[in-house]
Amino acid sequence: MSNGNQTYANHRRMHPLFHFVFSLLALVLLILSIIELVRSLQSGNGVLPSFLFLIISIIVIVVFLLIRTYPMKAQDRAIRAEENLRHYVLTQKLLDSRLAIGQIAALRFASDAEFPALSEKAAAEQLSPDAIKKSIKSWRGDDYRI
Fold it and tell me: Which of 11, 120, 137, 139 is 20 to 30 A from 62 (CA-CA)?
């Protein structure tokens, strides 16, 4: 699962086409559509096309958000199942039900040696995902999630 080079400092992954190009274009589209609607309202001409342009830009923003949200939810479900199985294999117990998905996602970076104890600590102290990641001594990379 890991190339061994991933650490807290470099574990975040960005997809440039999505995170920079698509997000920037969607934002520019929204801003231009608002400007065009204001101009058409002031002049009294072409209000309907400008309004439709704004609706289309809002649809693009919604699609942009859904394109990111739906796969993340599916990945979260898979991570929860994987880490629950890993915890069960290591301890013969399921993960503590107090752990939120963000905590479980952070725990996936912990090595098998520290995973059970860190899981208990995270549940007992309600550690944030970032605090969990910073607590990891032996990092186990996840090269599949964006």
Answer: 11
